[in-house]
């Protein structure tokens, strides 16, 4: 069984690669087994360095390259008549720290009927769909291990 152990930032155009579609839940894990699109079973054993985003590449010790794609899964889709209504839904779901995928015309989140009813109560349309899930990583995700960042200090002006 091939074991993929390292992330790649990019690949060359000529480089061949296999592909696998994985749900968001699986792409959050650093160790798991999967089956490639061609039916071959593989193992993943990566350092804990964050979520595998759709379009990411990983490599085995033998140099085999694998592209990770987001697998369509059951999601709730929110649509609205206006951009402002969609923005309101994003605000209310963000306040509940819900993993949320943003697109120009719809929001997507994992099935939760309580949240769906809340959004419907705001006057938006919510329906269940099959769609790849690539939620926003959050404003600080790319800096989560950067200890050089310090909290913002408030400045008091003396008059």
Automatic annotation (TrEMBL):
GO biological process, one term: protein-containing complex assembly
Keywords in alphabetical order: Chaperone, Cytoplasm, Nickel
Membrane-crossing residue ranges in chain numbering: none
Molecular function in Gene Ontology: nickel cation binding; unfolded protein binding
InterPro entries associated with the record: UreE, UreE_C_dom, UreE_N, UreE_N_sf
Location of the protein in the cell: Cytoplasm
Span list, region Disordered: 136-159
Occurrences of domain UreE urease accessory N-terminal (ranges): 2-66
GO cellular component: cytoplasm
Source domain of life: Bacteria
CDD domains hit by this protein: UreE
First and last residue of the signal peptide: none
Pfam families xref list: UreE_C, UreE_N
Family named by the database record: Belongs to the UreE family.
Record's function text: Involved in urease metallocenter assembly. Binds nickel. Probably functions as a nickel donor during metallocenter assembly.
Name used for this protein in its record: Urease accessory protein UreE
Organism for this UniProt entry: Acinetobacter qingfengensis
Lineage of producing organism: Bacteria, Pseudomonadati, Pseudomonadota, Gammaproteobacteria, Moraxellales
């Amino acid at each position: 069984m091939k074991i993929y152990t390292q992330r790649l930032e990019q690949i060359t155009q000529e480089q061949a690669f296999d592909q696998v579609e994985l749900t968001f839940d699986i792409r959050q894990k650093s160790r798991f087994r999967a089956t490639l699109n061609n039916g071959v079973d593989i193992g993943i054993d990566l350092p804990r360095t964050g979520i595998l985003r759709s379009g990411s590449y990983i490599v085995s010790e033998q140099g085999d390259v694998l592209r990770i794609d987001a697998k369509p899964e059951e999601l709730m889709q929110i649509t609205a008549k206006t951009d402002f209504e969609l923005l309101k839904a994003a605000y209310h779901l963000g306040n509940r720290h819900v993993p949320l995928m943003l697109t120009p015309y719809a929001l997507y989140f994992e099935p939760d009927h309580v949240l769906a009813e809340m959004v419907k109560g705001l006057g938006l349309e919510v329906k269940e769909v099959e769609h790849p899930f690539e939620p926003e990583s959050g404003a600080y995700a790319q800096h989560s291990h950067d200890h050089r960042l310090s909290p913002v200090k408030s400045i008091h002006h003396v008059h």
